[in-house]
Write a structure and sequence with these properties.
By secondary structure, this protein is of the alpha+beta class. Helices cover 35% and strands 19% of the residues. It contains twelve helices and eight strands. The protein has helices spanning 7-13, 30-33, 39-55, 57-68, 74-77, 84-87, 89-96, 144-154, 160-166, 190-195, 208-213, 258-265; strands spanning 16-23, 100-108, 111-119, 136-139, 215-219, 225-228, 241-245, 250-255. Strand 7 and strand 8 form a beta hairpin. The longest helix has 17 residues, at 39-55.
């Protein structure tokens, strides 16, 4: 995959309003600070923007989770035996190749969207915010408490690998690198809702109940979905990732775990 949309195209996709683009090494001014309704989000974003040039990738994968979860233990924030570098090598390489980090905040569907973006080239002082092209984008990481609340409300358990990454990056909308959905978009049965009106016209060996159970976590962009079955959850284990092949209207086991999926999609 090599999909590098500009902020303007993304804003259009999300039916966004006014876009605010904050660049690294350019401190937030008081009028821009007022756009944040969460003071800890403001502190975290300002911290990343002010320190990116000095600390780089470690800032996003180690410092930011600690800052957003100041009362959590190291074990809670580093929930796998492997480091982020070892577990998600293509993800961390994506961050290493970043020359400049920006933070985008805009209104879409009456909701403030807060997103980190990475650029491969530094921007001139007189850049046009609507024409900036970014090479990756993801929502501000979720906090540990938000994950626990989501698990309780959805009755879905995240695996250790998933939890590890969502504490660092809360997914991205549509086909933007790093190609996995935000926590709020992990909804059981969305595939079933897509196919329900036409299911009686499709020749499939799959029981419809499997579509109702399936949780999509990524997509191919050509009609296929990647995801997992929450009923397969086993404490301490990882979900196998299945592919919904729309061509044959069936599932196949595609990757052994979430990390393998992400590594494939990013390479």
């Amino acid at each position: 995959m090599d999909y590098k949309p500009s902020i303007y195209r993304w804003k259009t996709y999300l039916k966004g309003g006014t876009t605010n683009l904050f660049m690294s090494d350019r401190p937030l001014t008081p009028d821009k600070m007022s756009l944040f309704d969460n003071s800890s989000d403001l502190l975290a974003v300002n911290f990343v923007l002010n320190n990116w040039s000095e600390k780089g990738v470690e800032l996003l994968i180690n410092d930011l989770p600690r800052m957003l979860n100041e009362h959590s233990t190291t074990q809670e924030l580093f929930v796998t035996e492997d480091s982020t570098h070892g577990l998600f090598p293509s993800f961390t390489q994506m961050l290493r190749e970043t020359r400049e980090v920006a933070f985008v905040s805009f209104l879409a569907d009456n909701k403030i969207r807060n997103i980190f973006v990475g650029l491969h080239e530094p921007l001139p002082d007189n850049f046009d915010a609507l024409e900036v092209e970014f090479h990756w984008a993801y929502y501000l990481p979720v906090r540990l408490g938000e994950i626990k609340e989501w698990e309780e409300n959805s009755n879905i358990n995240l695996s250790s690998q998933m939890k590890h990454l969502y504490l660092r990056a809360n997914g991205t909308p549509y086909l933007l690198s790093p190609y996995f959905y935000s926590l709020d978009d992990l909804i059981k049965g969305t595939l079933a809702e897509t196919y329900r009106p036409i299911w009686n016209l499709i020749n499939s060996s799959e029981p419809f109940s499997k579509l109702e159970e399936f949780v999509s976590i990524s997509e191919s962009g050509t009609g296929d979905e990647y995801g997992f079955f929450p009923s397969f959850w086993r404490s301490g284990k990882e979900y196998a990732i299945y592919r919904w092949d729309h061509g044959v209207a069936g599932f196949e086991r595609y990757w052994d775990n979430f990390a393998d999926m992400l590594d494939y999609l990013l390479t």
